[in-house]
Amino acid sequence: VWTAEITETGLSDWEQQPATTSAQRRDPRILTDGRFVWLIGGEAPVDVVTGLIEVGRLDGTELLAFRQTTPLPMVTSEPAVALAPDRLVVCGGSRGRRGAREFIDRCVSAPLEAETGEVGPFVELPPLPSSMYGGAMVIVRGRLTLFGARSPAMADDTARIFSLQLDGGTAWERLPLTLPSPRLLEDVKVLVP
Predict the structure, then answer these.
(1) Coil, helix or strand for 124?
(2) What confidence tens digit (pLDDT) does each residue in 38-59 have?
(3) Which residue has the higher pLDDT, 143 or 21?
(4) DSSP assignment of 56-98
(5) Span 157-175, pLDDT tens digits
(6) Residue 183 buriedness (CB in 10 A; 0-12 / 13-18 / 19+)
(7) How many C-beta atoms lie closer than 10 Å to residue 83's C-beta?
(8) Model-level pTM?
(9) Angle (nearest 5°) at CA 17 between 12 and 45
(10) Are 146 and 91 in contact (CB under 8 A)?
(11) For residue 129, which of 102, 151, 109, 147 has the smallest C-alpha distance?
């Protein structure tokens, strides 16, 4: 694990941290709230997709050891993930070997323990409008918004935007906005100040 500090003039030098993960994998999704770092899903080196979630504590600029927490109720690589002050949301993704991928429409949410970053039990949210992977999600004023996810069911070159009321929402709503071609949106990132 390597980290760099963001400064007024750019990035500091990269420093290797003593933290290690319990399983080698590529493409896990990474979230942080400034106190903890979560690694979500991903693929092991032999193309085995995992539902593993690990959490590590930040101490200043040092990242302490990762530990496994409650796994996802599904195995997934390339899901959209979002963090609210008190919960983690994971939607979509893919599983299976390259060339024979199965895409996922499930969306789940779990509470986060404030002092340890541990992930609690997952509950189902309404499924995505179709199976999707990638993209980015944010939670703003209680609404979950998904940007730029890709779907084999959407053959045109339009990257759609969907939204769901996080508490009590019963179905995803397509917003009347589009993004450039999904091919241009390999890894969408959304920052909310």
Answers:
(1) strand
(2) 989 887 766 566 788 999 888 8
(3) 143
(4) EEEETTEEEEEEE-SPPSS--BS-EEEEETTEEEEE--EESST
(5) 556 778 888 888 898 988 8
(6) exposed
(7) 17
(8) 0.81
(9) 110
(10) yes
(11) 151
Secondary structure of residue 1 in the 3-state scheme: coil
- Residue 100 has phi, psi (to 5 degrees) of -135, 50
The tokens describing 174, both together, are 């397509």
Compute CA distances 25 → 22, 43, 44, 45, 77, whole Å: 10, 5, 4, 6, 10
What separation, in Å, do the N-terminal and C-terminal C-alpha atoms of the chain show? Answer: 26
